[in-house]
Amino acid sequence: MRYREALNQALREEMEADESVFIMGEDVGVFQGAFKVTAGLLEDFGEKRVRDTPISENTIVGMGVGAAMAGLRPVVEIMTVNFALLAMDQIVNHAAAIHYMFAGQARVPMVIRMPQGAGHQLGPTHSHSFEAFFLHVPGLLVAAPSTPADAKGLLKAAIRDDNPVVFIEHETLYGQRGEVPENGGPMRFGEAAVRREGEDVTVVGISRMAGTALKAAEELAEKHEIDAEVIDPRTLRPLDLDTILDSVKKTNRAVIVEEGWPHGGVGANLAALIQEQAFDWLDAPVQRVTGADVPMPYSKPLEQAAFPHSEHVVQAALATFRDV
Amino acid sequence: MASDVTMPRLSDSMEEGTILKWLVDEGGAVKRGEPLVEIETDKANMTYESDTDGVLVEVVAKEGDTLAIGEVIARIGEAGEAKSGGEERKEEPEAEAEEDPEPEPEEKRTATATKERPKPSSTNGAGDGGRVKASPVARRMAEELGVELARLEGSGPGGRIVKADVEAAAGDGGAKPATAEPEAEPAEAPQPARGEAGAKGEVEVHDLTRLQQTVTRRMAESKATAPDFALTLDVDMTGAVALRERLKEVAEQAPSFNDMVVKAAASALTEHPKVNGAYRDGRFELYGNVNVGVAVAAQDALVVPTIFGADQKSLGAIAREARRLIERVREKQITPPELSGGTFTVSNLGMFGIERFTAIINPPQAAILTVGALAKRPAVDDRGRVVARDQMTLTLVCDHRILYGADGAQFLARVKELLEQPLSLAL
Any bridge partners for residue A23, and if so which? Predict the structure, then answer.
C-alpha cells in the first residue's frame, strides 16, 4: 500500500468510526487533495464532513480550533508546511495554548496535516522542512511518519488524541509503498522504531531521512564494516528519548539526520539531550546531518545539494570513528 | 610548506620519548636517512633519522622534553621558511589555564560551526594546552579501569583517545597504576637536586631516567601480581670446568659458564613448555620460540637483551651473541627489538661472589633462573668422603600461577643434569 493510500484509509476508518471527525482544507474535496490523500472521501462522506475552503490558512486552522473546542474532531489539511506559517497565530497562540489558558476546561482535539520536503522543484515557498518550528511549541504533539504503516497508525492515533497534533507528511513519500497491517489500530505516540539494529553507531533519521539513514547504514556495513543502528523516532513530541539513549549507550556514537535547517533544528535539540543525558557514554561528538542553511533553491541540482543524501550520512558516521 | 616531524614509535611498549640531543641545529640542512635526533625510549637510546630532505625549520621539542608518540618534535621545510606559530606555541602554557575548564569563547564556537575546524593532529593532544584529548566514555572507563590516559595514543578523530583505546590498554595489562606524569623529565644524567638538610643530612634528589622508570614499574608489577617461590640446587661443575679448559685451547674466546647455563636452560625449556610460557589474563601462553634474556647491569639500571632461538643455537653461537649484546648494552647501542620478545631470563651475580640469590620475575615470563658464584666447595662423593668440587648454585624463581613446585623442580633438575654432563651442550 502506498503512503497516501494508508493516510486515506486512516481518515476513512476514523470517519466511519466517529461521526465527529471531519476534514477541512484547500482542494480536499472536489480536487481530492493536492496530493490525493483525500481521494473518494467527499463522495463517500458528503460536503458536511469534507469541506473545501478558500485559500485562508489562518482561518482554516482557526475554524478547526473552534470546532474542536465545540466537541468535533477536525482534521485540517494545509497544502504544504510552508503555508502553515500563515496559520502560526492559530496554531501557536490558540490550538497549543487553549488547554492551558482555560485550565483544562477546553481542549482542542484537532489534527493539522501538512506535507513537507524538497525534491519537486517547488522552490523556497513550498519545499521546506519545518518540524523544528512545531517541536518548539509546548502543547502541540508532532508526528513525522516515514512509512505507510506508521502514516496510518499514527494518523489514527492523532485523530483520537485530545491534544492538537501537527501531523507532518512528506511530499516524496506519498508514492512510496510499504506493508500496512490489515485492520491495524492506532499506534502509540512516543514509541521510536529501531529500523536496523547495530552495534557501532546510532543514526537517528527524522521523517524521510529515516530511509536515507537506512540506506547509509547498508553502505556503512558493506563498504566500511560499520554496523549502524538506525532509529526512526516517528513522533518528535512526545519523543522516545529512552530508545535513543539506550542505543547511544550501546554504540557510544550518534548521528542525527534531518532535512530541515541546521540552526535550532531537531538535531540540535536532540544532540543537546544526548549530551545532557549520555555524556559519559559518548566516544565522539554527536554529528548532525542537516539541510543546507539556505532557503530551498529552485534549480534542480542546487535543490538536490540542499538536503541530505545517504553519502552525507556515511561521511558523518565515519567522522565519529576517524578523521575524514 | 614545512612538514611536521613527530615523536616516532621506537619500540612496542614505547608511549613517550625524551629528546636527548638534536644532531642538527635549527636552520641546518637535513638529509633523508641521516641522523636527526637522539631519543630516549622506555628501553634504550635511539638515533632517529630524518625521513625527508630539507631544512630543520623549527625545533619544537627541546632537549630534555618528553613527549607522547605522535606529537610534533620539529618541522622540516625549505630554507628561509618561517617558523609556524612559534609565537602561539610559546604562549600556550599561559593560555591553557584559562582555556581548559572554561566554556569556549563565543568566537571560537562560531568558527567551529562555520566549518573552520581545527586541523586534526595525530596526537592525543597531550601537549595541546595540557589537556589530554579523550572522549567522555573513554575518560569514564579509564577512571574505572585505572588506565592513565596521558600514556595512551588516541586512534579517534584528531587523535582523540576513544573507548577502544582504553579497552585495549586495560586488556593487555596496560592498566597501569595511575601515577603523576613526570614533567619535563631530565634526559639521561639527571642533575641531582638538593633538598633541605635534616636528620639525614643534605638530600640529593635524582629523577629517574626512562629506563629506570620502566624497571621500577615492571618490577613492582611483577611482585604485586606474581605469587612466586624459589627452588635452589647445587650443580657440580667439575665437568663444565674441564670442558671450558679444553674449549679455551681451541677457541679464542671460550664460552663462559653463564653461556653454558643459557644453553642448558634453552635445551631444558624445549622439554618443559610451561617454563617457556606465561600466565596472562587467566590463560597460559606457551611460546613456540625459546628466547632467553640475559640480565645486564648497565646505564644505571637493568637491561635484558634477548638471545633469540637459543635452543637452536650452538654453545659457541650463544657465547658470541651474548658477548655482542652485552657490548651493545654497555655502549648504549642496544635497540628495542633486541630487548623484547624474551620468554625466559637468566640472571648472574656470581662474578660478585654471590653464592645464591632470588630475583624478581621478568613479567609476564613464568620463571627466572639465577646463577651464583662458581667455587670449590666441600662435597660428599659416592664413597662418603668429603672432597673439594667445583660447584655452583642455581635458583629458579617461579610464578606459581603457571609453574607448580614439581614443574619447576623437574626443569631445574634437567638443567643441572645438562650442566653436569656438559658434552651434550657442545653438540
Answer: A50, A75
